[in-house]
Design a protein that fits this description.
288 residues, alpha/beta, 7-stranded mixed beta sheet, 4-stranded antiparallel beta sheet, 27% helix
């Protein structure tokens, strides 16, 4: 993993790395490719974006339109779509990696997508057009600045949502309060699918659920693992086409069961979260 901030000019930069066995010996200089992210920031780590999708052909043009061109790869996990989801994705993003989902549920799709990623940083984003890919720069900036897990929040200062009903907002608030009390977190949002993290985080948490509750499970287990979590203000828009498979009561109960099943973190072992999200000006897109 290489967390490097570079001048925002494309090219190669020689980094000094140990070349001897076990990290010992004479240091060598190998060229490391870095990618311009904004007008004043470039990074060395490759970024993978995972998009679980099922029958989202009409929404994908809106999703891909906002994805930054400096992304290393896009991994689409297809949940056996009956429309042209896969072909539309290939037309929109040549070289996209398509993974066929064998099981069912969002959690199962994300687990399959994570396994197919080759980047050092992994971003998870929905395929319904509700998330703005231009926000990825804020997530990546937080990670290269020291966070392990960049967690999107619709209720942090600068975030928002056009999609949540009053009952879903209430449920999210209550469940979030339970997680904060039980695990020593200080989250402002819990059930949101726009997150990013270093690949090494997958070695420290176990993902073993298949449904929408996977996001809550991740949020809990990164805290239990003592990873540095930073919330990123994010705006959630309405789904553009189609109907969501999420059901407030059914999935809310599944989230609650996950919370109650997980053991709390001893107070002495709780890690304080890192500071507020780094906000970067994106050319043509305002502040992210």
């Amino acid at each position: 993993m290489s967390a490097s901030v570079r001048p925002a000019v494309p090219g190669e930069d020689p980094l000094t790395i140990p070349t001897g066995a076990g990290g010992a010996g004479v240091a060598g200089r190998l060229p490391v490719r870095y990618r311009p992210v904004s007008s004043h920031l470039a990074i060395a780590p490759p970024v993978s974006v995972v998009i679980p999708a099922m029958n989202e052909a009409r929404n994908l043009p809106y999703v891909f339109r906002t994805l930054p061109g400096w992304i290393h790869e896009v991994v689409l996990v297809d949940g056996r779509s009956s429309d042209d989801t896969v072909q539309v994705a290939r037309d929109l993003w040549p070289g996209i990696k398509v993974v066929g989902q064998r099981g069912k549920g969002k959690g199962d799709a994300l687990i399959s997508g994570f396994a197919a990623c080759t980047g050092d940083i992994i971003v998870m984003i929905d395929a319904d057009g509700s998330a703005d890919g231009r926000e990825i720069v804020s997530y990546v900036s937080a990670l290269v600045s020291g966070a392990d897990f960049a967690k999107g929040s619709r209720f942090a200062n600068g975030g928002g949502t056009d999609d949540m009903t009053a009952i879903r907002k209430l449920g999210n608030r209550v469940l979030c309060a339970v997680v904060n009390a039980k695990f020593g977190a200080r989250y402002t949002d819990l059930c949101y699918g726009y997150n990013a993290f270093w690949r090494h985080c997958l070695d420290k948490i176990t993902l073993d659920c298949t449904g929408f509750e996977v996001e809550t499970l991740m949020n809990i287990r990164v805290v239990k693992a003592g990873l540095k979590v930073q919330e990123i203000p994010s705006h959630e828009y309405d789904r553009i086409h189609g109907v969501s498979n999420l059901r407030a009561v059914r999935d809310g109960l599944r989230v609650l069961r996950v919370i109650l099943k997980e053991r709390g973190v001893p107070r002495s072992a709780r890690r304080r979260p890192v500071g507020p999200a780094l906000r970067i000006s994106v050319p043509g897109g305002g502040a992210s």
